[in-house]
Amino acid sequence: MSTLLEPGQIEAAASAPPFLHLPPATLFDVRAARLEQLAEGHVLGDYLRLVARLCRIQQQLLAQPPSELPVAEERQRLCLSHGLPPLAADSLVREGPWLAWLQALLERFDDAPTGPPGQALEQLRQSDESQRKGWGIALLGGQYDAVPAALVPFIGAALQAAWSHWLLSLPGPELKPTGSLAQCPACGAPAMAGVVRNRGRHNGLRYLACSLCACEWHVVRVKCVYCESSKDLRYTNLQDDRHAAGKAPLRAECCPGCDSYLKQCYLENDSAAEPLADDLASLALDMRLDEEGFHRLAPNLMLAPGGG
Length: 308
Ligand code: FE
Ligand code: FE
Fold this sequence. Notes:
By secondary structure, this protein is an alpha+beta fold. It has 2 domains: 20-169, FdhE-like fold (Alpha-Beta Complex); 191-296, FdhE-like domain (FdhE-like fold), CATH 3.90.1670. 40% of the residues lie in helices and 11% in strands. Strands 1, 2, 3, 4, 5, 6, 7 and 8 form an 8-stranded mixed beta sheet that branches. α2 (27-39) packs antiparallel against α3. The radius of gyration is 20 Å and the shape is globular. The relative contact order is 0.14. The model has no long low-confidence stretch (mean pLDDT 90). The structure holds fe (iii) ion (2 copies). One fe (iii) ion binds next to loops.
């Protein structure tokens, strides 16, 4: 027989959700604009504006990349053919090609802010490469007690900018799911949050946003991304006068099976919602869920948990 598809197969192929949703080349400007919007009248306004400023610098770095793809094309092809993340965070953070991005970020942050962010900048400027690399390895390894809290957003911003640039430089990435729903197929880092998209062929689908490279990959809705249970999941959000009940732009999917949760943005409720920005602006929800005994497994590289 020929290899022609049966009619049912054609429909299945046509309706299969696209596995990837790549970020736009302007992702850091989009993020900065959302942070600036959320900072208005917010109790964490100064902090959100500092992160917005870092995002603007991240966008400048994307326009003038301090270093190119760290892996030879051959190695990337090999990773892809074996189903491994081509931009593996655990090995690349040790090889150190991202350190040029941290240096460039420090140079672009010219007028020093006051208070802890200013002190953090000074400490980073005086550190040497091995110290910087050690902090980066600890941050991506989730060892927050090994990184001074005030340094986290600066190091996190440099790491994100480098990995997003490398992601957007991958030649037509054909990425495959990893063994874990919550792991990025491009770099292997954990998801930061989910996004339920509202447009085009991604409409109504849930994607998880990578904490490091900002790649988004499809995961079916109403399923715990950590233990894969769909039983008794609960959705909870902050009470907010600006949104009618059931129209919150961000909710946490809480799983009573493994006591963990993942926040997700609903673009149908606010098309300007952005996973990193909306995550940081809803820290009060994390505090409440922590009190209720839920664990957060999703990193946000702009914030040291509990160290703010
Ligand atoms: Fe990633
Ligand atoms: Fe679970």
